[in-house]
Amino acid sequence: MQVAIIGGTGFVGSYLTDKLLAAGHSVSLLVRAGSERKLRHAAEVRTVIGDIADGDSMHRVLEGCAAVIYNVGILREAKWKGLTFESTQYDGLVNTVNAALDVGVSRLILMSANGVRIPGTQYQETKCRAENFAFESGLKVTVFRPSVIFGDPRGTMEFATQLFAQMVRPPIPAINFVRGGGKAGAVVMSPVQVEDVADAFLVALENDECIGKTYVLGGPEVLSWKEMLSRIAKATGRNKWFVPMPIGVMRLAATLLDWLPLFPVTRDQLSMLEQGNVADPAVVQSLIGRAPGAFNAGNLAYLGN
């Protein structure tokens, strides 16, 4: 099957490409000008240089494909670069759907995120609106809503690498975000391994029973923010002290400073942390036929490279 990936040169996209090629599929990638160096399988994939806002390049990358994976998203806007939640997470999906309908692509798999909702943050709302548009398009759609995804970033950036760089590696106490006092106030997540997410996409692509469904993907454990940082520290041979930081206090600082690119979190990101990000591991296991990978020292060994 010829499959187009929109967002195929980043962290998750590189694993999707690996899995599709290994399973015998052909891959067509939309690549922004200047990002050609990010390709891992340049000789094995068809590439189209272009942008999600350009209808011509979207038509060319989808031409001859039976399916398309939309895997574009950002965690923080960079409006001076034209990168907004609206343009990347909604408008780009709309352009992809319209191009797919024009050239006869019938299958769409959409990367969304756990916890998307309306009303919500701009991140959540644009993801949710993209889901709704996809399901109403007439295409055969499957949506995935993963919790935070971890794994070897291969030169890009991912969740655990970012936490290591910002909170574990510096020789200062790490911030432990909390919603309140005690365990009940902990910020909790279900980190899911990138290989498991990519395998779930492959299963859905090859299984018509997945059409019309939304899957929330999470790893085998629900971990607090402190537990995740502690495991990253253990995987990298570090001992860390922790300073509790109520999200409400951090939100006050973000209200004044989150417009600065170097400020570590935005108000929207803090709101989503407060909501939590957990999922039932049985969903992943039922799709890929094995227990999902744990957020442990063995699976975080890449942080020491």
Give the helix/strand layout:
Layout: E1 2-6, H1 11-22, E2 26-31, E3 46-49, H2 55-62, E4 67-70, H3 85-103, E5 107-111, H4 122-135, E6 140-146, E7 149-150, H5 159-168, E8 174-178, E9 188-189, E10 192-193, H6 194-205, E11 214-217, E12 223-224, H7 225-235, E13 242-246, H8 247-257, H9 267-275, H10 281-288
Parallel strand pairs: 1-2, 1-4, 2-3, 4-5, 5-6, 6-11, 7-10, 8-13
Antiparallel strand pairs: 9-12
Helix pairs in contact: 1-6, 2-3, 3-4, 5-7, 8-9
Structure description:
This protein is of the alpha/beta class and 305 residues long. It has helices at residues 11-22, 55-62, 85-103, 122-135, 159-168, 194-205, 225-235, 247-257, 267-275, 281-288, and strands at residues 2-6, 26-31, 46-49, 67-70, 107-111, 140-146, 149-150, 174-178, 188-189, 192-193, 214-217, 223-224, 242-246. It folds into two domains: 2-146, 3-Layer(aba) Sandwich (Rossmann fold); 159-189 and 221-277 and 294-304, Alpha-Beta Complex (UDP-galactose 4-epimerase, domain 1), CATH 3.90.25. It has ten helices and 13 strands. It has a seven-stranded parallel beta sheet with strand order 3-2-1-4-5-6-11, sandwiched between helices. Strands 7-10 form a two-stranded parallel ribbon. Strands 8-13 form a two-stranded parallel sheet. It starts with a strand and ends in a 17-residue tail after the last helix.
